[in-house]
Amino acid sequence: MRQYISREIENVIIQSSKQFPAIALSGPRQSGKTTLLRHLFEDTHKFVSFDDPLNRERALTDPKLFLDNFGSSVIFDEIQYVPELLPYIKITIDQDRHKNGRFLLTGSQQFHLIKNLGDSLAGRIALLNLLSFDINEKKRCKIVNDLLVDTKSYFVHACLNGSFPELVLNPGQSTDLWYGSYLQTYLERDVRNLADVGDLRNFQRFIQLLAARCAQMLNLTSFANDLGISVTTIRRWISILEASQIIFLLPPYYRNLGKRIIKSPKVYFLDTGLVCYLTGIQTENHLFKGPMAGQLFENFFIQEIVKFYYNNGRRADIYYLRTHNQLEIDLIIEKYPEIIPVEIKLSKTLNTGMANPIERFIKLFPALNIQSGIIVSLADETIPLTRHITALSLESFLKQMK
Length: 402
Hints:
Helices cover about 45% and strands about 15% of the residues. By secondary structure, it is of the alpha/beta class.
C-alpha cells in the first residue's frame, strides 16, 4: 500500500467541516484533492465521482433523487462537470442548516468560475484550495526526504522532479512523460470541454511562451503579436489558466503610492516542474547556468508562499512593486498592521548590497512605516544585513509567517 502523505491543509478542512454545511476544495488536476478527502472522511462520507459519465447523467436526469440516494454525507468529486446540481444541494442544506460537513466538493477549476456556485451556496460553503506538495509535505515522504536538506535542494527537486504527489511518490518515473500526459489531459478535458478553446495548438504554444516568461510582468500585447491573435483572446486564456490554478497572477502594490507605480501583474506558475518541462530544462547545470535561473528561483519561492497561504485557509495578501524610476521589490506581504518587503536572490553569498532596493523603498515611501525587510536566497543562515533587513532561509521565512 502506497504511503499517504498528510497535507498541511488538513486541520483547516476538518475545522471547516464543523462550521459549514459544504466545503469546496479546488486545485489543479493531480494535486491530491480526492485522496485527501477520502482519507479524512472515509468512515463518514460516501464517494461519487463525476468523472464517471453515468453519474453525471443520473445527476442531471433527476437531481433530487440523486441526492436522496446518497444520504446525508457525500464527497462529490469533479463537481465542475455538473454545476446544475448545485441549486439542489442548496435546497438540501437549507432543509437542515444545523448539520455541517455534509457535502464535500472537489473541482479542477476555481469555484468562483463555476456557474452559480457563489450565488447558490453563499454563506453555506467554505472555499479552499489545494496545490501540489509544499516543502513540508515533501519532507514527510520517505522516498525523497534524504534529498531535501536545504533551500537549494528544495529548489532543484521542485524544478527537475516536480511537486505533484504522483511524481514525488514515484521518483523513478519519467517526468517528461508524466508532464506530457498531464498537459494533454488538461488541454483535452479542462480547456477543450470546459473552457471551449477552439485552437488547442495555439493555446499550447501560449502556455510554452508564458512559461519562458514566468516571474515577469504580463504583457498581453506582446503575446498577442507573437501568436497572431487578439489581446481579448490572450486575456481569456490567462483567465482559464488562472482558474485552473496552473498560474498565479501577483498584483502590483499601489495603495496610496500615487501614479509612480507600474500596475501590470506578474505571472508565476504554481509548479516549477511544469515550467521546466515546457522550457526543456532537464539538468541541474542547465537550471543554474541557463538564462532562466533567476526567474525560476523567484517562481519557486512565490509558489511556496502561495501554498503556505492556501494551506492555512488564508487569502494571499501578497504583491510586488515596480516604479517608473526602476525601483523593484520582488514581494510585498501585507501582514496587518505590517508591510514586509522581500527580495529573492539566487545566490549563496550574502552581501549588504542585496538590501539596497528595500532600503530605497523604505526611504521613498516613509508613510508606509515599514519596520523591517527580508532577503531570501540559497543561503540557509539567518543574518542581519542592515539595521532594517535580515537574510532568512526559505524554511525560516515560512515559520516566521505563521
